Amino acid sequence: MFRENIIAELKEKINKEPDNIENYKNLANYYIGGEDLNSALGIYKQILKLVPYDYQSLVNLGSIYFYKKNYIEAIDCYHKATVKEPDNFAGYYNLGNVYAEIDNFELAYTNYKKALELNPDKTDIHTALGYLYQDVDNYDEAMEYYQKALELDKTNSEIYINIANIKQKQGKLQEALEHYEKAFELNKNDVKASLCLANAYAALKNYQKAQQCFEHTVNLNPLNYSSFVCRAIAYYDNNDTQQAIANLKHAIELDPDKSNAYIILANILVDEKRYEEAILIYKTVQKILINSPEISTFIANAYIMLNDYAQAVKYYKKAMKQAPKDNEIKLIYIEMMNDYINEKIKGK
Q1: Into how many domains does the chain fold?
Q2: Which residues contact 119 (CB under 8 A, 6 or more apart)?
Q3: Quick check: is 61 in a domain?
Q4: pLDDT band at 302 (very low <50, low <70, confident <90, very high)
Q5: What integer pLDDT is reported at residue 345 of this predicted model?
Q6: How distant, in Å, are the alpha carbons of 60, 160, 319, 328 from that of 325?
Q7: Distance between CA atoms of 149 and 314, rounded to whole angstroms?
């Protein structure tokens, strides 16, 4: 009731002073605070009818469009913002974010660099450029920007995590661990930092420390799907199949619409020679990942292990139909058929 009263008061102010954009902005801000983005979007549109190039309204409206994945409208808003205030870094930085999201490296880079020219000491811009280069596997350039970001803000745990991720991809596991530890020290209540540290210990086969970190992560957020999936992988790598399966099943309970836990669970069951159970789970995944040749191939492979060639052929053909240009699936199918024919000949 309190919320409705405030909204009613703000609307009344707008009715009395329809040309006072501050009343509109206050209402829009209130809607955003209540996560009512559709209503906020409508108010910002009203503001821009009154003042077509109001900078903050353009940026805020662009951010709403960006959140809604309406990238064309977001670009339009941010571009207008840069026209209104060409010396304000925020418009260019936000444009860079949109172009990075749609994988347009050149335009993302151009806008980030312009933002950096206008505000060279902004940590977020250096970090964004690091992300940009990391996404295209240019780790040397990414590290330069991350190192500059750290010079500006040594308390930013996210930067340490990004550097650690690169070190891990480069196979420098001990260096990666050191950076994950630093991120965790800076913020022990950060689920991401805790989970990354757990995975780093697992990668180094220090399963005792890994499980301690997983436990901490789960305590921070018992509903975090990724924590249970990663924990399951660590358990399985340490030959604790029972705990791995239990954690994967719990992850599925937390989010039955995500495919990762199903796939890993089914793969484990195949390794354990529990083929019928694995097939049932793969078929469940097919309802999530419609037209996935990988899942069809997994099912076919499981049927092969059961010597059910009729079903295997059915799913190999389905996989080839789903990915007609995938020669690897065709080769597997041909090899399977050759084996089947040879077995038949031997049987005669």
Answers
A1: 2
A2: 89, 125
A3: no
A4: very high
A5: 65
A6: 44, 41, 11, 9
A7: 54
